Fold:
Amino acid sequence: MNYSHKQRSISMENILASFQGTLKVEVLSAVVPLLMFLSMGLIGLVLAHPKYQLVPRATFTFLSKLVFVVFLPCLIFTYLGPTITLKNLLLWWFIPVNVVLSTAIGCVLGLLVALICRPPRDYFRFTIIMTAFGNTGNLPLAIVTSICQSDDNPFGSDCYNYGVSYVSFSQWVSVILVYTLVYHMMEPPLRDQSLLVEEEEEDDEDEIFEEIMSGPNYEDENHLSRPLLVEAEWPGIEDKETEHCKTPFIARLFTTRSSSARLSVSTIPDVIGSTEEEGTSNYSSKCLAEPRMVRKFRSVVGMTPIHYILQPPTIASLLAIIIGMVPTLKSIVYDDDAVLSFITDSLEILSEAMVPSAMLVLGGSLAQGPNESNLGVRTTVGIIIARLFILPLIGIGVIHLADEWNILIAGDQMFRLVLLLQYTMPSAILLGAIASLRGYAVKEASALLFWQHVVAVLSISFYIIVYFYILF
Structure:
């Protein structure tokens, strides 16, 4: 009896030792890559720190443009094209769906944060957006690249190729959402009650329209010095501004205070190019005219900057998908002995600079420190907790449920890691660029992005360890 008891004790000790050894390997595999890309960000922080000023701000701005226009497109085109096929396209369908799903869940969390924390009225929509939309670009690419850097990574020899491909394949969905839904959700609030005029006072509407454009609330935000963090994922944002960017377009269309006091639609630019003069058309023309609500939605569609979607990273993704799905083109561009292999080799060399450059820019952005914010400490903390700690827990449940339903690729742990990372990242830096473009909550977006990225160092490290423990 003593012998059996001793045997069980030895067996239990072996199990515990094996468990501790496995856990130690998982922790090291998760933490070491994070330390690698965090060290690159730390170097950027030291170089751009105002106390030392080893590298001027203009250099980081130029580097961010190189990342956006050259390095990131090269990375996407080089690694997405060889791995994409029609079969893989059908297998990867859950990647864009998961982006939409994580955004929808984030919107619900953001609404709860707004209802619980009660931010200032002007920042209600801002609270929802900043909770909902995470970074699906540079940070996930940096994490995947760092994890796949070592030859003994737990994801195998194809870790880097497929990891970069999965992250790249998810970006086009985020870009579409940002330039449609986020663009309109981030429009400036309609503060001035004098904007709501009587329908027959059409002569005064042009003056009111100009009053919005030259109002003090928007003039101050328009002349803010844009922090580097705002331009980190969309450099040259000031070149994209139009006359309608900083006006509350949706509010002018749909807001009503009473049945007799509302804004006429005659000042809203018509997509087709003709404006309907009310009071001058006869009965028959009114019968043939399109409904007012249809015209309003058509105007919204016309004011949506769809052309912004075709940015260099998106174009690179589309080209990689098209070429990768056509075997003839794929053999010409991506094969080792292909005619155009020298071009892809050159692009691959350029793509290697993407991750270190992006991390240097991010570190340089954080070196400027947070701006002043009117959002409130309670709302800021609420967004950070919901985005960085609660949403990843929900993501674990969603991915586990999808795995139980056999939606995910069997045995592909990198596929699952990329899906989980979509729930883990801080708010997209691109939201700061949209805030700057629309002239809405620019200081608040910059401050919130700063604090999120600072806290994300801890939250991402924690959840990466959790993900490794779950996956392996």
